[in-house]
Amino acid sequence: MVEASSSHRSSAYLNALTQEIEKKLQRALASPSQRRNLLQELFADIALEVDDRARDIILSREEGVICPAKDGSDGRLCFYDVLADHYVRMPESGKRILDLIVQLWSQSFASHIYSLLFHKWLFEVQLDNNEVLLRYSSALVQGATNVFWIDIQTNTMRFQSLFQYLLEEVALESKHLNKIPVQAQRDLYLLLSRFIFFYNSVDKIESLLKQFPVFPNSFLVGGPADFFVIEVADQLQKLKVEPVLLHYLSQIKVLRGMELRMTTSTRLKTCLYSFTSPGGPMYPTRAVRHAAWDALDFLFPVGQYPRHVISLFFRLLYPWYWPSSCWNFIMSCVKAVLYTLLRLVFSGWEKVREQKNS
């Protein structure tokens, strides 16, 4: 009896949220001048983390007792997580919202909202119209791309659960993957390739490559590994947030040993090399340059010494960097000498203690 009451409270709460979302979408549709702001506010609302009071209502089975939930890897549960599950269990509840979003397709944040609320619904319902299915699946990929970039720009993982669902429950599950058109499947795999490093899923790369769809231009580009590495290289060139770029450069070492075409290998090498020198067009920081050198030397050990010599000559073209380079070199030498002396002192002290004890 208590469980039924709790379930009723949860459904009532989610239905109330649905009504609020519907009202805001209707206001956006009726007010062109305020449309973008209203959609942006709605997107921010559904991306919020569920607070304790709402979590009690949505997830509890008994009054005051919270049942286990499918939170993200960091324990975070957002409103779009519970709403996406709700629209799978009760498709009719989200039908009106979906109709309103379709009318707002071309507006900013419409695809964001759709991808958050209906990413599970798309793979659970049966849609017989191929044109509608292609539109929905393309909007999902576009919206997911936009929200993942928001995570990158803010260096957060608020939408990690969306990425994990698309990777583990769709890309690696043929029963879900085959529900969307082939073109959407290809776009989805390219999307996952670009963000798999950011969301710490490098252990799934091998499985992802095994499931990679066939591309019509594969005879020119290469196999799945080539498509994957090309997307990663392009993604690196777009990253402007230093912690995220450093994260990518540390994770990219898993690519060692992949069989790539010469053009793909050269593309990756050129991309990494562009981060190793100061000045335009990238203006990488010292930490980024060192991380890029580490990744480059690890992935392409052949020719690393000539590369460093050539880089040294190019550094001479930037005389304004000489003072900082000399200072960093001196400090590195001082630290190395200091650490060596400390190791000698402590090792000698340990030997003296061992002799006394014996």
Automatic annotation (TrEMBL):
Name the UniProt record assigns to this protein: K-stimulated pyrophosphate-energized sodium pump protein
Organism: Melia azedarach (Chinaberry tree)
